[in-house]
Amino acid sequence: MKIIWRVSPEATGRYRSFEMRSWPSAHYANGKESAAFCLSCESAYVPADVKMGNHKEIKIRVAIYSTTPKERAEKGAFVWGTLTRRAATLKEAKQIAAEFLALHYKVIHTEVL
Predict the structure, then answer these.
(1) How far is CA 106 from CA 27, 58, 77, 91, in A?
(2) What is the span of the domain harbouring residue 28?
(3) Is 112 a domain residue?
(4) 113 lies in some domain
(5) How do residues 48-81 score in pLDDT, each as one tens digit?
(6) Exposed, middle or buried, 91 (CB in 10 Å: 0-12/13-18/19+)?
(7) Can you tell me the distance from the alpha carbon of 5 to that of 22, in angstroms, rounded to the nearest whole number?
(8) Count of domains in the chain?
(9) Are 96 and 83 in contact (CB under 8 A)?
């Protein structure tokens, strides 16, 4: 299963200094834009800092689609789960996400594939 990573656009406009750029997220390359992974960090996403590794640890969240019909009615198509393993770099976070997907592909619902 292939995933595509995206970075949010840089803040623009009059009040851009008050906005914090979000960390990259991934979706499945199935044409449906189904969510796959979301990265978060206490530090803002600044490409120069990310290259140098000047940020706090990165949390990796995964979209879990293998929910029961009752859960889907209450919570929606998927729920976000947070991996216990953290990453020190963006490259490592993407690698952890790929490893998780390879080992636990059953969290993906057949509608997403």
Answers:
(1) 16, 24, 15, 24
(2) 3-107
(3) no
(4) no
(5) 999 998 999 999 999 888 667 787 788 887 888 8
(6) exposed
(7) 13
(8) 1
(9) yes
